[in-house]
Specification:
Elements (H helix, E strand, L loop, with lengths): L1 H24 L3 H18 L11 H20 L3 H33 L4 H12 L3 H11 L5 H24 L5 H28 L6 H19 L5 H10 L8 H25 L3 H6 L2 H24 L4 H11 L4 H12 L5 H25 L7 H8 L2
Helix pairs in contact: 1-2, 2-11, 2-16, 3-6, 3-9, 3-10, 3-11, 4-5, 4-7, 4-13, 5-7, 5-15, 5-16, 6-7, 8-9, 8-10, 9-10, 13-14, 13-16, 14-16, 15-16
């Protein structure tokens, strides 16, 4: 166990460094954890060896996976049903535009510019078109936008984009079998039944030191995630859907959400974000930067060309529309999942995987840094709204 405790200590040492950097420069902790993970790999490779982190260890992958599932669930639970009903047209339009145009643009770059075959190019288009709920939700939460209609509309649009990613990935690459049908039936039953069963169960057994609420939700999420992977899908998909359907009950229990957030952000997501950055080899990217630069440039350009006009059409001023656009350009969760799916099923090779993951991590960092530095809509910040209403 000495090696395991040492690895955990290393992860949280890196997480503490990332937290201090984020606090010093007032940027998202998720982004600093990704960047710290990238540089940690380079430094460890020069000193004690890159394997010291153990990024491929089953227990590290498990904790990182649970972190992604829990963070995705919390993002879904933050969606306000009333806001979604009011802004569903805007969220759907932004989400669809955010997926379709970038997917085609990134496919074209991979196929025509980089010379990839059609299947790897299609996978690259799907992966780079995704928007990271994990990154966007973390940014929303750190600034307080998740409590505003503005932030909730962006989160709803993220759901539409990622739903398009999962569906397209499944239709193009994943085999549709009887397992897929069984998964859809169970997920539909959970989507309908969870809002009815959960309040009854939590009302009867919750509110005690045993933390029944937390155990109940984690059990449900892990069971559905297991079913999703068994059917050839991804575990984060049911987490987002169940989070959405429980937004009216669990999402409004602020004490429970705070406890879940403490477990997720404090314990689990450092493994996810630092591990995501750790997969990127900075020397390899510097040696062959064309693919990463091309993917990043076309992803951001197509996101601006597709999302910004839609946001303006629905009445967003320039600053709000640019902030929405750049956050929708932030990829990570479903992008890395799609890339790993392609590598595991021999759709892409290791070189293509490294290029793709490096580009995806770049989309997690670059657009969000630009958004928070140049286009932060301070008039939507809850603290400033309170100050504006004060006498």
């Amino acid at each position: 166990m000495t090696g395991i405790w040492s690895q955990i200590a290393l992860v949280f040492a890196l997480a503490l460094i990332a937290a201090m950097i984020a606090n010093r420069f007032r940027i998202s902790t998720a982004l600093t954890e990704i960047i710290v993970g990238m540089f940690a790999r380079m430094i460890l490779a020069w000193t004690i060896g890159a394997d010291a982190f153990g990024a491929q260890e089953p227990w590290v992958k498990t904790l990182a996976g649970i972190g992604a599932i829990m963070l995705t669930f919390l993002a879904g639970a933050e969606l306000d049903p009333d806001v979604f009903k009011l802004k569903w047209k805007e969220a759907a339009a932004i989400g669809v535009a955010s997926f379709l145009v970038p997917a085609v643009g990134c496919w074209a770059v991979a196929y025509y510019l980089l010379g990839w075959e059609n299947a790897p190019a299609l996978l690259a288009g799907i992966a780079l078109a995704a928007t990271s709920v994990a990154v966007v939700y973390t940014v929303m939460m750190e600034y307080g936008f998740n409590r505003t209609d503005f932030g909730k509309t962006i989160l709803a649009a993220c759901f539409v984009t990622d739903l398009g990613t999962v569906i397209t990935l499944g239709l193009v690459f994943a085999p549709v079998t009887w397992k897929t049908g069984a998964f859809i039936v169970v997920l539909a039953a959970a989507f309908v039944g969870a809002p009815r069963v959960t309040p009854i169960a939590l009302g009867k057994f919750g509110g005690r030191p045993s933390e029944f609420e937390t155990k109940f939700l984690i059990f449900a999420l892990m069971a559905l995630s297991a079913l999703a992977t068994w059917a050839g899908s991804e575990g984060v998909l049911p987490a987002y859907l169940i989070g959405m359907t429980l937004a009216g009950s669990v999402g409004r229990d602020h004490a429970l959400v705070r406890r879940l957030r403490a477990i997720t952000i404090g314990l689990l997501t450092p493994f996810y974000f630092i591990r995501a950055g750790y997969f990127v080899s900075i020397p390899a990217v510097l040696a062959a930067p064309l693919g990463v630069i091309a993917f990043l440039a076309i992803e951001m350009a197509t996101k601006v060309a597709s999302v910004y006009p839609v946001a303006r059409f629905f009445g967003s001023p320039h600053k709000d529309a640019m902030y929405t656009t750049l956050l929708m350009a932030s990829g990570l969760t479903f992008g890395t999942i799609s890339a790993l799916f392609g590598l595991s099923h021999n759709i892409i090779d290791e070189s293509q995987y490294s290029t793709l993951v490096a580009a995806i991590v770049a989309t997690a960092v670059t657009p969000t840094l630009i958004a928070n530095s140049l286009y932060l809509p301070r008039h939507h910040l809850p603290e400033e709204e309170v100050a504006a209403k004060a006498p």
